[in-house]
Design goal:
Blueprint lengths: L2 H8 L12 H23 L3 H12 L7 H8 L8 H19 L1 H4 L9 H7 L16 H8 L16 H21 L3 H11 L3 H11 L7 H19 L5 H8 L13 H15 L1
Helix pairs in contact: 2-8, 3-4, 3-5, 5-8, 9-12, 9-13, 10-11, 10-12
Length: about 280
């Protein structure tokens, strides 16, 4: 490994926040982040598990490389050992989608199966996971680094269902958003108009307003998917720059944060249950 490559991999801005020197803990954080990335990637592209399996077969021109059960285990944070075929599949899909959209000359050299109308419908407008170090599509080696906890994908937060930080963030978000909008001096109609310019899908803007008004609630996966857009909306409202990770930190009660929300009784019970599990 060259010095330049080692520097790129280990630069603090690319590491998972809080990633420790302890290898076991780093790998656990990486496994959770892999879960978050898969949730985000599939939801952003509206790919079902069977569709993702079909994409893997297409991208590698090989059957049986990725199964729906494996995808479920990864999304739920239960995949303890990531097989090389699985990493190959994720990298191959990501590269093939990017090349199909941007470089047909390179795409022809990837050796994918033929692009059927079904495959084209899945990939022509699909979102590509970018390597945070280069801005290029994340390849097979990058997916391995992600799983091992060496790099983090920009804008992706959360993780497997049951991630305590996301459960707390979801429960606090309505009060946080309502308070932020109130302090901005804008009403919900004005904020909805701003949100509709940020979110490509108008229903995501409507969801944000409904949650802020206390009429609806985010699921953890929804908040993970919408976090980047929410940060942009809030920035246009109050002029403060936010990142998805920073937003989750605010919601989980960073000390001294003027918008921090005190834990509710249900959240205190959640902490207590979590502590009991740790001592079992």
């Amino acid at each position: 490994m060259t010095k330049a490559l080692a520097t790129a991999i280990l630069s603090p801005q690319f590491l998972i926040p809080g990633a420790p020197a302890d290898g076991h803990t780093r790998r656990e954080l990486g496994r959770q982040h892999m879960s978050a990335v898969m949730i985000y990637w599939l939801a952003r592209n509206q790919w079902s598990h069977p569709a993702t399996e079909a994409l893997a077969t297409w991208a590698l021109n090989e059957t049986g490389v990725l199964h729906t059960s494996q995808i479920s285990h990864i999304r739920n944070g239960k995949m303890r050992m990531m097989g090389v075929k699985t990493l190959d599949a994720f990298g191959a899909i990501n590269l093939a989608v990017w090349a199909y959209q941007n470089r047909r000359d390179l795409f022809q050299k990837l050796g994918t199966a033929p692009v059927t109308s079904k495959i084209e419908g899945l990939i022509k407008d699909a979102f590509v996971i970018e390597d945070p170090r280069s801005g290029l599509p994340l390849d097979q080696g990058g997916w391995m680094l992600l799983y091992l906890g060496y790099i983090a994908i920009t804008g992706v937060v959360g993780g497997a269902r049951g991630d305590q930080s996301m459960e707390i963030a979801v429960s606090r978000f309505p009060q946080y958003a309502s308070r932020l909008i109130s302090r901005s001096g804008k009403d919900f109609i004005e904020v909805k108009a701003i949100a509709e310019k940020v979110f490509p899908a108008r229903e995501r803007a409507s969801k944000l307003i409904a949650v802020a008004a206390g009429l609806d609630q985010y699921e953890p996966e929804e908040l993970s998917l919408d976090a980047e857009g929410i940060c942009k909306v809030f920035g246009l409202i109050d002029g403060m720059a936010r990142t998805p990770r920073g937003l989750i930190d605010e919601l989980t009660g960073a000390p001294g944060d003027p918008l921090a929300v005190l834990p509710s009784k249900s959240e205190q019970q959640l902490h207590a249950c979590h502590d009991l599990r740790l001592t079992d």
